Amino acid sequence: MLPPLDAFLPELQYQTARSSGPGGQNVNKVESKVELRFRVADSAVLNDEQKQRLLEKLASKLTSEGELLVTSQEDRSQGRNKELAQQKFYELLTKALHRPKARKATKPSKGAVRKRLESKKKHGDKKSNRGRVDF
Fold it and tell me: Which pLDDT score is estimated for 23?
């Protein structure tokens, strides 16, 4: 079970930069882009199994130092971008740690098998009745 987002907040590091998004002249002078960094291996919130799963599942999103990097620059406000980056981060963790339900193999019922075979037989008879007629 994944802990709430609040548990991760002390372990998150933030870095700001100038955004390329909306904002007019504001873009040129305000650092509204937010980069969120999270060191998976050093986390005290996650257990070893969860850390290993994250390192496998999110390998393409990790830096060479093993940091998960999430950026947000959709909004003009740095505060809003920080919130959006936190949401993206938590969604990434949730998806990566989700274990799909194991599929149980089932057999078709006897009635379904019988019905399928009868249908095949009927279709075969229909085809075998086609063809040349001798007089």
Answer: 62
Domain boundaries, the chain: 5-97
Residue 6 backbone phi and psi in degrees, to 5: -55, -30
Q: Which residue has the tokens 């086609």?
A: 130
Q: Whole-angstrom Cα distance, residue 102 to residue 7? A: 29
Q: What is the pLDDT of residue 24?
A: 65
Which secondary structure element, helix H or strand E, spans residue 52, and what is its range?
Answer: helix 48-57
Distance CA(42)–CA(4), nearest Å, equals 18
Backbone angles phi, psi at 56, to 5 degrees: -75, -50
Residues lower than pLDDT 50 in the chain: none
The CATH class of 5-97 is alpha beta
> Between the CA of residue 59 and those of 8, 14, 46, 96, what are the distances in Å?
20, 21, 17, 11
Q: Which pLDDT belongs to residue 74?
A: 85
CB of 88 within 8 A of CB of 70?
A: yes
**pTM (predicted TM-score):** 0.70
Q: Tokens representing 71? A: 């950026």
